[in-house]
Every structure is written in C-alpha cells, then in structure tokens.
Amino acid sequence: MNINLSDFAKSKILVIGDIMVDCYLWGKVERISPEAPVPIVQTLKRTYMLGGAGNVALNLASIGCQTDIMAICGNDKAGDQLKQMLSENLITSHLIFNDAHLTITKTRIMALEQQLLRIDEERIQTLQVGLKEYLLSKLREIILSYNAVILSDYGKGLLKTPDITESIISLCRANNISVFVDPKGKDWGRYKYATCVTPNSAELNLVANENIESEKELIEISERIRKEYSLDWLLVTRGSKGMCLTGEFPSPLLIPTQARQVYDVSGAGDTVISVLAAGVSIGLSFQDAAMVANKAAGVVVGKVGTQPITKDELEAVLNHS
Ligand SMILES: Nc1ncnc2c1ncn2[C@@H]1O[C@H](COP(=O)(O)OP(=O)(O)OP(=O)(O)O)[C@@H](O)[C@H]1O
Ligand SMILES: [Mg+2]
C-alpha cells in the first residue's frame, strides 16, 4: 500500500454530531463519610477531554487533517470549555450555542486508582426547526470546501432531528463528497444513501434483528443491510476480531487484529471512522483505508483512557508490518 501520511494535511474533513465534554476529577480517599457509608474523595485536579463527536475531530486533527466540527451545545461553562479545547487542538468550530440546550458532560470521579462514579449531565434533544434550518444553511455555504463529512451519532438528538441526517447526506452526495456515519440505534432509515456506515457487531445485530454467530452469517447479513440502506460500503468493527468490510467489489474483506495488550477499548470506534475517512479522502481504496484504520484502532486500545491516534504512532505501526 502506498500511503504518505503528510497527504493528510491536504485533506479537509467536517465532523457533524453529538459533542460532549469528558471530565475527570482526580482525588484521594482517606476516610469514610460520617453522613453515609461512602468514601470521601478529596479532589486534587480536574482534567477535560473532547468527547463524542469531539473525539472524532480530535483524532482527525491529531493525524494532521484540516478538521472542522459542527455541533450544538448549551450557553454554559462547559460550552466555553468545548470552544477552548477545540481551538487548542486547531479544530475549526462551527458550534451553535443555544439557551435551550445543555452541554453534555460526563464527569468521572477517579480515586484509589479506579473510577468510583460517573455523573452524566445530558438532555436528549432534537433541534427546533429554526436551528435545523440554520445548521443546514450554514452547511450549504461551506460544504464545497470539504473532502469528506463524518456523522458521529451518539444518540443525543442532533442527528435524530427530523430530516436533518437525510438532508446532510443528500447534500454531500449532490456535491460528490463522501459521507461516513458512526450509527446509533436500530432506525437506520436516516442513514440511507451514506457512503459508508461503521457499526460495531452489537449495533449490526440490533439493526438486522439477528444474533450473528458465524463469519458466513456476518457477511450475508452485512450485505443485506448494506443493500437495504443503499450504502456503498459497510464496515463492521468486531472488537478483538477486527473488521468486516463489504461493498461494491467481488469478495468481502475480513481484517484480523494483531494480538496486543489491551487497556481501554473506549474511543476505538472514533479512531476507526476518523482514519477511514482520512484515508479515503487522500485517495486510498476503501480496503486499504480500512486496514490502516484497523491498525490505528489497535494502537489506541493499548492506551489508557480515551486518547486519539497520533501521526507518529500511525507512521510507526504502518512501518512495522
Ligand atoms: N482487543 C483488541 N485488540 C486489537 N484491536 C482491537 C481490540 N478491540 C478493538 N480493537 C480495534 O478497534 C476497532 C473498534 O473496536 P470495537 O469494534 O470494539 O468498536 P466500538 O464498539 O465502536 O468501540 P467504541 O467503544 O469506541 O464505541 C476494532 O475493529 C479493532 O480494529
Ligand atoms: Mg462505537
């Protein structure tokens, strides 16, 4: 495979989807509360990360793509935090701040070398008609500058707004821009005509209403779903079993993972869709881009916590095989 990672700098990719703040509160525990049988965590520091669609954008920026994000958040402190983190990571933000929305924040209380508790502040909310029209008109203005669009659906409402996903996909297709979708839930009608959808095995089982056991079944059902939703490609991520790519070519492609030490699989799906879209946008075939994405995901599962892949790590893993 002929790939020059510095080509990523020429590629401009837009992520649209559910953005969130991942907050970590680090502390120590020295005593049990006199009020209730729970530990008292004395906080030492607080760290923030871009989560959800923000983590997809972070992966793209981290491998050197020109990266933009379009999303909605609240008019609140966490929203300001998002804006600052996006700018620190050189991600161009088309964030819509809205009073009726809340910036989704997931706070982990970390002590005794583990996660003690997670506190989620979120409201599942679709966009009001006016906001939807605003987002789509903004998108119509800027769409032609992108090489690819990624829809990162975490089920928080943005991409469930009636007709929004359908409108974005048809706008991309009308302008010959590939559109990649990381799906949520079983109603895939809104993803129809996307260039590629990237479910994990559980998400494929859900949409197909099956319990896939063999690779033969996996391939048959992938093909059925791909045709049912008129997708060019379907990339199923299979955890430690790797990936299955089906599309417009004679035989499906099963890509195994290389055995490695796994620390934290969260965020692997974000890395897959980012590297896949980036690879295709610089001219790799879907097969080659999927193989690169598989290697990239193999690196991030070896890191503690949700962290993006870097260009140097990708370079190293591609050269070692
Ligand atoms: N144990 C593992 N060893 C090597 N690679 C792995 C392992 N688990 C996951 N991967 C890599 O990560 C990819 C995505 O993993 P998975 O199918 O679990 O995605 P996901 O469920 O969408 O993840 P996420 O938690 O980010 O939503 C796999 O296709 C594979 O390339
Ligand atoms: Mg996923």
Q: Give the quaternary arrangement of the chains.
A: single chain
Q: Let me know the CATH homologous superfamily.
A: Ribokinase
Low-confidence stretches: none
CATH structural class: Alpha Beta
Mean pLDDT over all positions = 96
Number of domains: 1
Number of strands: 13
Strand content: 25-35%
Strand order of the largest sheet: 5-4-1-8-9-10-11-12-13
Provide a brief overview of the structure.
This protein has 321 residues and is of the alpha/beta class.
Word description of this protein:
With 321 residues, the chain is an alpha/beta fold. The protein has a single domain (5-28, 40-319), classed as UDP-N-acetylmuramoyl-L-alanine:D-glutamate ligase. The protein is built from 9 helices and 13 strands. It has a 9-stranded mixed beta sheet, with helices on both faces. Helix 2 (77-88) links the parallel strand 4 and strand 5 (91-98). The mean pLDDT is 96. The chain binds adenosine-5'-triphosphate and magnesium ion. The site of magnesium ion has 3 residues, from loops.
Provide the descriptors you would attach to this structure in a database record:
321 residues, alpha/beta, UDP-N-acetylmuramoyl-L-alanine:D-glutamate ligase, 9-stranded mixed sheet, 4-stranded mixed sheet, 9 helices, 33% helix, globular, binds adenosine-5'-triphosphate, binds magnesium ion
